[in-house]
Amino acid sequence: MAAQRAYTTHPLVLRRVTVRRVHEVTPRMRRVVLGGEELAAFTRDGTLHPAFAAPGFDDHVKVILAADGDVHAALPAQLPHGIEWTPAEHRLTRDYTPRRVNLQEGELHLDFVVHGEGPAEAWATSAREGDELWFVGPKSSLRLPKELDWILLIGDETALPAIGRFLDERPLDAPAHVLVTVSDDSARQELALREGDTITWAVAEPGDAAALDAAVRALPAPAGRGFAWAAAESRALLPVRRYLQRERKLPKDRLNITGYWHREEVAAPEAKGTADAGGAPQGPAAGPIPSPLPWLVARAALLLGVVDAVADAPGLSAGALATRLGVPGPGIDVLLPLLRAYGVVVDGEAGSGLRLGPAGEELLDDHEREEYTGHEAELLLALTHLAPALQGGTSPWRLASGATLLDAVTGDAGRYGELVEECEQLVFLLNGLTADPLWEDVGTCLLTGPGSASVVAALDDAGRLPRLRVAEDATPATVLRGHVPTPERVDWTAGPADVAVAAKALAYRTDQEAALLLTRLADWTRTAILVESSRPDGLSPHAAEAALHAYAATGGPLRDSAAIAALARRSGWDVERTIALGWGTEATVLRRG
In the 8-state DSSP scheme, what is residue 231? Predict the structure, then answer.
């Protein structure tokens, strides 16, 4: 039986609301009550959009502000089924959890932590009745497991809206054990506790990882099947995640940990663009070209196991670390000075051995380390062959490895799994596809490409889940497990499918390989849909690098709508139409006679 999916998706709609009233929850929390016609179903530019829905206790909406005050110039474009984040120099966005939703009264409550800085707090501080606010979302809601004996809710002050809403609405009938760190006792709130619940308030500076870790470790371990939810400063949650996974042995499907904010003063070694304090996407920084040395040193530290070894056994000497890793002493002696310089490791007080520095703590995060050791890192290393690849008209990946990226992915479930993880966000963009009338008569759907799992999830949310068949060459059997239902392996003698969806299947193929796949699809179906990114994501801080990443993988630029259409026609297909999905992603509907 397939495992329950972790999230339910929602249509992405841009909404305008106005302030109805404001009051202080505590000296550290200000509540703004918002209302307006666009919380109900409404029509804009001839398109009917659904009523606002935020059923999950930790749902979040993206509030849109502008550094220059011109919010209307910062707004994204509303598509019939999605959002397109068009470029906007002064756009600022912040995510907030609805503290209360009452659609009968047409009200949405947002709580803002009062900490003395930030554009969102400045807006909330000055908010008066009638002021407007624009937001998008939520894009999804967490699905809690159905049978639990307890739930652990961990957070700092930014998590109080979600924790408070959980305790008010009780989406789960099980005792709740709550831990909240606050900067001082004035931040404590009255929460709706029940018999069997427990609550611990711990006073700590915002983002204090050691204090949060100690407080979590001091909590009793309830018996039975439980779930842990945590939200706080992203780096402060890293030791909490390790403790809950490694020592409390909580499996990933019973753990949800989210960084609600990020302290900016220290970052892991990188040579990339950055986001400013207001969250506006930035390209590569102007000025001297950054050295790749910090990135290479961090990669070496992860591949050798230095970061994990120091995290698991703080206080190791250099010699003990070398022995533990099986690395000759001179090698560690070369690496350690650079790791100290970049903040990956630091020396403990009074010669107490090595400990992780701020950058090293960030490298404990799975997503962070993938930038140094995963598929993205391998593509980056392939760019050392960029000059000869440009001269020879081939892909850097092929020059580096001797094979195309498709060759590398085929048969390698681990590498393919990384592509699937990169496509996980695709599920939030597929409402425009699943709402299309073409699904009305679909009984069988053939899937191919690493975005297939997202297509399954989106069809499930839309209630359009047909009997699925999966292309044998692109989706290892493990990829779609955990989604509802598990598609069958296809028997190509069973006849054609009503429709085929190739989800991000072209992104790692050369033009020749892409044309071959499209030709094969023509043997299996008369209707095909290609879901691909045709332009950079407007919110990405690395949008300017998208074309280079595509070239590293395929030997060609990022394929726009015209290039995808040309490939399709070359393979015997007619392009019927293109569906804009948002975030630079499109679905191209193909037909053949």
Answer: E
DSSP structure class, residue 245? I
Tell me the pLDDT tens digit for each residue of 52-83. 999 999 999 999 999 999 999 999 999 998 89
Residue 543's pLDDT band (cuts 50, 70, 90):
low
Nearest CA to 76 out of 85, 66, 67 is that of: 85
Amino acid, res. 430: L
pLDDT digits (tens, 9 = 90+) for 132-167: 999 998 999 999 988 899 999 999 999 999 999 999
Backbone angles phi, psi at 273, to 5 degrees: -70, 165
CB within 8 A of 390, min separation 6: which ones?
A: none
- Rounded to a whole number of angstroms, the CA Rg of the chain reads 25
Are 166 and 101 in contact, with CB atoms under 8 Å apart? Answer: no
Left (φ > 0), alpha (ψ -120 to 50) or beta: where does 506 sit? Answer: alpha
Q: Look at strands 47-49 and 226-233 and give their pairing.
A: unpaired
Q: Could you tell me the pLDDT band of residue 545, with boundaries at 50, 70 and 90?
A: confident
Going by pLDDT thresholds of 50, 70 and 90, the confidence category of residue 272 is very low
The 3-state DSSP class for residue 257 equals: strand
Which long-range contacts link 561-569 to residues 24+ away (Cβ below 8 Å)? 561/534, 561/586, 561/588, 564/506, 564/530, 564/532, 564/534, 564/588, 567/506, 567/511, 567/514, 567/515, 567/518, 568/518, 568/530
Quote helix, strand, coil % in the chain, to nearest 5.
Answer: 35, 25, 40
Least Cα distance to 164 among 218, 110, 236, 94 occurs for 110
